[in-house]
Amino acid sequence: MLLRVVTVAGDATGEAELARALSLRDDVDLLFRCVDRVELLASLRSDPIDALVSVGLPTWLDREITDEARARGIASLGVASNDMDRTLMQRLGITLVEAAPGAIVAWALAPGEGPMAPVRMPVGAKRGRLLAVWGSKGSPGRTTIAVELAAQLALQDDATLLIDADSYGGDVAQMLGVTEDLPTILWAAKLAAKDELDAGRFAIDLRRAGKAGPVLMPGLTRSELWPDVSAHAWRRVLETATSEFSFVVADVGFCVEPATDLYTGDDGRNRMARSTLECADRVVAVFRADPIGIKNFLRATDQLLDLVSRERLLVVANRVRDKEQRQVAELIRTNLGIRPVAYVPDRPAQHHRAILSGESLTRSAPGCDAAAAVRAVATAVAPAAKPSGFLSRLVSR
Length: 397
Prior knowledge:
alpha/beta; Rossmann fold; 13 strands
């Protein structure tokens, strides 16, 4: 059998020596010596390959690549010269082998056998609830509802995480008056891609938004950074977050159009929103209760319902004028078949004061009717829970 191999180099000298030895064998076809992530992924997706061999560990080789290789039936093998590379390779599910062509051929033909079989570091067994907050174009107040929902849930359970997952540019940190530089979703995605994101990193690096507020993971500091959050890494972020937190509230972008790149199958800039909506236990869909806001919402729900079943959907009417609740409810029921679970009244002065103070309404004005309306949403998505766990020790800003 002719073994088809591609190599990558964390150790350039070692890779060159191994590539030379492999090329001299009659039973090995050395197809490519890939120099970067893009070249390797292109090879995995377009060529019949039996084995990927990493000599040393390049910084760009991550779980997305090894998972894709495994899904395609490609053995991932590694030659390591130090303990750190050995540990990281095992975390990525790479089988460690000797730097000898014969050993590589033997392992590639019988992957997963022997003392150094691939190891996948498990995510915690606990499973929290993932709550996505979405709204159509036109400033429906989606981020405000996400912030208030997370604040309400944090009062029930201190293990509540608020993620700014808007790839078009988020404002959660600014709304909560956070001025210090905190790790963002880009930080989390990079760690998740290497299987290095865990409870310890959350506890050490993240901060609470206020004394009794949710733990905060800010969004992209610049909207053009969205390509750096891969689809695989984002799924790992969500998996890890829900394994460590009781509630994860994700404020996602408005646009959920499907992928247009048939080659990669990637959803591009909308991948974070689409993936979060597909995985969420509940989706809170927010609309602004005026003619334009309702029109935008109803037109956008066709694409939303391609990702979310009606059973998981909770509709929230925002900025509802006094005495218009019944009219809004009937309009949504007629067109969508369900009624809103909450009607958040239009209180711009209260929201303005909250933003100026860098706090949520839940904290700055807990008795106001707007906070009470969001409390109804929190009740719909989660039963009351007692604070517990290491996350209660996270410091406030």
